[in-house]
Design brief:
The structure is a single chain. Helix content is 45%, strand content 20%. The protein has a single domain, classed as Alpha-Beta Plaits (2-Layer Sandwich). The strands form 2 sheets. Strands 2-3-1-4 form a 4-stranded antiparallel sheet. It is an alpha+beta fold. Bound molecules: guanosine-5'-diphosphate (GDP). The site of guanosine-5'-diphosphate (GDP) has 9 residues, from helix 4.
Length: 184
């Protein structure tokens, strides 16, 4: 059995885009939805990317009609980036976000994040990785200091079995080690 198939929690990269981050009450509401769906916040970082970094991030879309708009928007203000963990995190986060095209999503999936908070196809509120491979690449892009293998080796089991709580100040979940249990 490969080590990947023994993993219970999947990691994904989530971004709250500038149209959300510029309104703290929207950040709050969207984070509530994320908590309700029982995602764990493993790492959180707020940043304002220069245009060149956004161009790198969205390189696969270079040449598409919306690329320039997308890059201008994503570098227009701060974003909030998160490594989220959950069983089936990639698909579950994309389900919670709703589909890319906001005007369709507002009608077809009104309770999704994009259905509720999306403004246009460009300013559609959130981003989520679409595969394990992309998640790895995107986590490394925003959190180069985060070692995925090390996290699975050292931390995953504590998030599954430990006493997990949310650290509001740092915007991440933590676990308390139960030494009595660990010894037995
Ligand atoms: P995602 O995985 O749902 O974010 O979708 P994509 O990876 O295909 O596109 C990346 C981002 O580009 C989307 O989240 C949108 O912000 C933007 N985008 C994608 N398709 C369109 C489009 O048809 N029109 C516009 N204006 N923006 C788009």
């Amino acid at each position: 059995m490969s080590s990947a198939s023994r993993r219970s929690l999947q990691l994904t990269l989530a971004i709250l885009k500038p149209n959300v981050v510029s309104h703290p009450h929207l950040v709050h509401q969207i984070k509530e939805l994320i908590h309700q769906k029982e995602f764990l916040f493993i790492r959180s970082k707020r940043m304002h990317l220069p245009r060149a970094r956004v161009e790198d991030f969205y390189r696969e879309h270079e040449g598409r009609f919306f690329y320039n708009r997308l890059v201008s928007f994503m570098s227009s203000g701060p974003i909030s980036t998160h490594i989220l963990a959950r069983e089936n995190a990639i698909a579950e986060w994309r389900k919670l976000m709703g589909a890319t095209k906001v005007f369709k999503t507002i009608h077809e999936d009104p309770n999704s994040i994009r259905g509720q908070f999306g403004l246009t196809d460009t300013r559609n509120s959130t981003h989520g990785s679409d595969s394990d491979e992309t998640a790895l690449k995107e986590m490394n892009f925003f959190f180069p200091e985060f070692d995925v293998e090390d996290w699975y080796r050292e931390s995953e089991r504590h998030f599954l079995t430990g006493d997990v709580y949310f650290d509001e100040e740092h915007d991440i979940h933590r676990y308390k080690l139960n030494h009595a249990k660990l010894k037995s």
